[in-house]
Amino acid sequence: AQKITQTQPGMFVQEKEAVTLDCTYDTSDQSYGLFWYKQPSSGEMIFLIYQGSYDEQNATEGRYSLNFQKARKSANLVISASQLGDSAMYFCAMRSLAGGTSYGKLTFGQGTILTVHP
Amino acid sequence: NAGVTQTPKFRILKIGQSMTLQCTQDMNHNYMYWYRQDPGMGLKLIYYSVGAGITDKGEVPNGYNVSRSTTEDFPLRLELAAPSQTSVYFCASSAGDGNQPQHFGDGTRLSIL
Lengths: 118, 113
Known about the structure:
The complex is a heterodimer of chains A (about 120) and B (about 110). Chain A has about 120 residues and is mostly beta strands. Chain A has strands spanning about 5, 10-15, 20, 25, 30-40, 45-50, 60, 65-70, 75-80, 90-95, 105-110, 110-115. In chain A, the strands form three sheets. In chain A, strands 2, 5, 6, 10, 11 and 12 form a six-stranded mixed β-sheet that branches. A four-stranded antiparallel β-sheet of chain A has the order 3-9-8-7, with no helix packed on it. Chain A has a two-stranded antiparallel sheet with strand order 1-4. In chain A, strand 8 (about 65-70) and strand 9 form a beta hairpin. Chain B is mainly beta. Chain B is globular. The interface of A and B includes residues 91, 93 and 105 of A.
């Protein structure tokens, strides 16, 4: 079974500063993928960034980067130069890439609410 | 390009009523999913489908049914609605089960009273 843990119910950051949102995971699979999604107050789910378990480099997408530490089973999201529009709920999710019966199912964490102050 | 479209956006049901949440995607994705999101929580998988005619249960399937007669459509049926089914329902699709992200619809907010 897979499990995602996001231990920060809420985080606050000053505009233009960087912030790290924590995500730890538990899986017995050797091949897996980690995703981060953003959910603004309007409710839609927006894909941000992906990291594969065999990727040698940490993923980056614009202001988003993923601090992937495989041995510690952590996949923290780093948002640089925070903007007011970054205020939202952020979800970490995992997918097994081992094939079999996983069929691409995502397991989500409980989320972290990020508030960016001006 | 519409992506994943869910209807309705909001609905109020009485206990014991039934309804179908509609989901359609225009990206020709084989994989489709239904999730529910309870207040302040992450998403939990209800049902999923890997192609037309193939569906399977997720983490919380009780009280729901699905069908997948076409690649585009993946409706979710609630039979005998119960207050515990009050939630926001998200439909998603993806091109595959690897590194491709799931694309989500805007959600259906459902209240059972």
